[in-house]
C-alpha cells in the first residue's frame, strides 16, 4: 500500500503585532528563539523528521528576512529536484489574487495550486510555536477517522486559553469549538496544527468566497477559526488528536519571554538538544562563546560568538552578544550582536538584535514578572544612552 500523499502548508504570513516592536522589521516566524534558532525551525524540523516531502511556506508580512533565512530549505533536507520547499506569495492575475486576510483566505487564494498538487491530506501548520510532533501520527489518525479535519489539541493554563480556539471533545470527536472566547469553557485548545481532507476544505472555502463576492464584501475569508472549523464541528466532521508534550505559542511578549525562561529550568521544559529529534537551523559562522575570568554566570544559555566579562544570571544570549566588565544582565533575553557596556544593568527585558546599551544605563527592574507589561522591550538597532534609565514596561522603537 502506497503511503498517503501529504502536502504541508506552513502559515508564515501574519504580522505578529502582539510582539510589538520585535516584529516591526521581521516576520514573526523569523523571530530568534533559544539563542541560535528561529521559530520557523520547529515546524520545518518536524516536517523533516516526519518524512514530509512537500512543504510549502505561505508568506506575506515582511517576507524578505524569512526568504533569506529559509533560502532553498537545505538545513531541513528540502532542497530537492522533485518536491521539497516551495514559497508562496500574494499574487495578482486571477480571482484568487490579492493580499491574504487570514489563514483561511491564504489557503483559498492558493487553492488552484493545491488542487493541482492533489494531496490526500493537507497539513496546515502555524510557524510560531515551539513543540515536537511526528506528523505521520497525526496523518494516520486523521485517515483512520475519515473526518474532514483532525485538530491537534493540547492543554494550556486557564489564563491563556482565551487566546486560542478552545475545544471540547468526546470519544475523539470535537463536539464544540469556540474561537478566542472571552470566557473559555475548557483549557484544551487547538494548537494550529490541522490535518484536512483537501476536497471538503477547498470546496467550503470556494463556497464562502463566492458568497462574499455576491455580497460585495471585501473583508475576505479571514481565519479558519471564524467559519471553517466551527462549520466542520457542527457537521460532526472534526476529530481530535491530543499532543501531550511541550507546546508553546510565542505570539505575545510575555509568552516569548516565558518560553525562553522555560529553557533555563533544570531539566529544561523543552530539550532542544535531543539527539533523536534535533531542531535544524541555519548555522551562523561564529567563534566559540567565551566567559572571561572576571565574569559571574548563573544558569544562562550562551550562543556562539558571545563574550562575557560581566555578571549574567537566568538569561539567554544570542550569537555575538558582548557583556562588558561590570555590566549585569538578569532574567533577560538578548538577541544577536547586542552590546552591553560597562556598568549597565539589564533586568526583566527583551533586547532585540544589534542594540547597544550604554555605560551605566539602567534597563528594567528586579522583581517577579506578572505579565508582559512588566518587561522592557527594546527594538532592533536601538541605542540606550549612557547613564539613562529605561523603566519597567517601557518599549523602545527600533533604531
Write the layout of secondary structure elements.
Elements: E1 6-12, E2 32-33, E3 37-38, H1 41-49, E4 54-59, H2 63-70, E5 84-88, H3 103-109, H4 111-117, E6 121-126, E7 129-131, H5 135-145, E8 149-155, E9 165-170, E10 173-179, E11 188-196, H6 198-214, H7 228-234, E12 238-242, E13 247-249, H8 253-262, E14 290-291, E15 296-298, E16 301-302, E17 307-308, E18 311-313, E19 316-317, E20 322-323, E21 328-330, E22 333-334, E23 339-340, E24 345-347, E25 349-351, E26 356-357, E27 362-363, E28 376-378, E29 383-384, E30 389-390, E31 395-396
Structure description:
The chain has 399 residues and is of the alpha/beta class. It folds into 2 domains: 6-262, Spore Coat Polysaccharide Biosynthesis Protein SpsA, Chain A (Alpha-Beta Complex); 290-396, UDP N-Acetylglucosamine Acyltransferase, domain 1, CATH 2.160.10.10. 19% of the residues lie in helices and 28% in strands. It contains 8 helices and 31 strands. It has helices spanning 41-49, 63-70, 103-109, 111-117, 135-145, 198-214, 228-234, 253-262, and strands at 6-12, 32-33, 37-38, 54-59, 84-88, 121-126, 129-131, 149-155, 165-170, 173-179, 188-196, 238-242, 247-249, 290-291, 296-298, 301-302, 307-308, 311-313, 316-317, 322-323, 328-330, 333-334, 339-340, 345-347, 349-351, 356-357, 362-363, 376-378, 383-384, 389-390, 395-396. Strands 5-4-1-6-11-8-12 form a 7-stranded mixed β-sheet. A 6-stranded parallel β-sheet has the order 14-17-20-23-26-29, with no helix packed on it. The chain has a 6-stranded parallel β-sheet with strand order 15-18-21-24-27-30, with no helix packed on it. Helix 3 (103-109) packs across helix 6. The model has no long low-confidence stretch (mean pLDDT 92).
Amino acid at each position: 500500500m502506497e503511503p498517503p500523499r501529504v502536502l504541508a502548508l506552513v502559515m508564515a504570513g501574519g504580522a505578529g503585532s502582539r510582539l510589538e516592536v520585535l516584529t516591526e522589521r521581521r516576520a514573526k516566524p523569523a523571530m530568534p528563539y533559544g539563542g541560535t534558532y528561529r521559530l520557523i525551525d520547529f515546524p520545518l524540523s518536524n516536517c523533516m523528521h516526519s518524512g514530509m516531502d512537500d512543504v510549502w511556506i505561505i508568506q506575506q508580512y515582511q517576507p524578505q528576512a524569512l526568504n533569506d533565512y529559509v533560502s532553498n530549505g537545505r538545513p531541513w533536507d528540502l532542497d530537492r529536484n522533485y518536491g521539497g520547499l516551495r514559497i508562496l506569495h500574494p499574487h495578482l492575475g486571477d480571482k484568487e489574487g490579492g493580499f491574504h486576510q487570514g489563514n483561511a483566505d491564504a489557503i483559498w487564494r492558493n487553492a488552484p495550486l493545491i488542487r493541482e498538487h492533489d494531496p490526500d491530506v493537507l497539513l496546515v501548520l502555524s510557524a510560531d510555536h515551539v513543540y515536537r510532533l511526528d506528523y505521520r501520527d497525526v496523518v494516520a489518525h486523521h485517515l483512520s477517522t475519515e473526518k474532514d479535519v483532525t485538530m491537534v489539541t493540547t492543554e494550556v493554563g486557564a489564563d491563556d486559553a482565551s487566546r486560542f480556539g478552545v475545544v471540547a471533545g468526546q470519544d475523539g470527536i470535537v463536539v464544540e469549538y469556540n474561537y478566542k472566547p472571552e470566557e473559555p469553557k475548557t483549557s484544551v485548545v487547538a494548537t494550529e496544527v490541522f490535518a484536512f481532507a483537501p476536497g471538503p476544505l477547498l470546496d467550503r472555502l470556494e463556497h464562502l468566497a463566492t458568497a462574499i463576492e455576491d455580497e460585495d464584501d471585501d473583508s475576505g475569508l479571514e481565519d479558519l477559526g471564524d467559519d471553517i472549523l466551527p462549520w466542520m464541528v457542527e457537521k460532526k466532521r472534526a476529530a481530535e488528536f491530543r499532543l501531550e508534550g511541550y507546546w508553546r505559542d510565542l505570539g505575545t511578549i510575555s509568552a516569548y519571554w516565558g518560553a525562553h525562561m522555560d529553557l533555563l529550568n533544570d531539566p529544561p521544559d523543552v530539550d532542544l538538544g535531543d539527539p533523536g529529534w534535533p531542531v535544524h537551523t541555519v548555522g551562523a559562522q561564529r567563534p566559540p562563546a567565551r566567559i572571561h575570568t572576571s565574569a559571574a554566570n548563573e544558569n544562562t544559555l550562551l550562543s556562539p560568538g558571545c563574550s562575557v566579562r560581566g555578571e549574567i544570571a537566568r538569561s539567554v544570549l544570542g550569537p555575538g552578544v558582548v557583556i562588558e566588565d561590570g555590566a549585569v544582565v538578569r532574567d533577560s533575553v538578548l538577541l544577536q550582536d547586542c552590546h552591553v557596556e560597562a556598568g549597565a544593568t539589564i533586568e526583566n527585558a527583551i533586547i532585540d538584535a544589534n542594540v547597544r546599551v550604554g555605560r551605566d544605563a539602567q534597563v528594567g527592574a528586579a522583581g517577579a514578572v506578572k505579565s508582559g507589561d512588566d518587561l522592557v522591550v527594546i527594538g532592533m538597532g536601538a541605542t540606550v544612552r549612557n547613564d539613562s534609565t529605561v523603566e519597567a514596561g517601557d518599549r523602545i522603537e527600533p533604531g
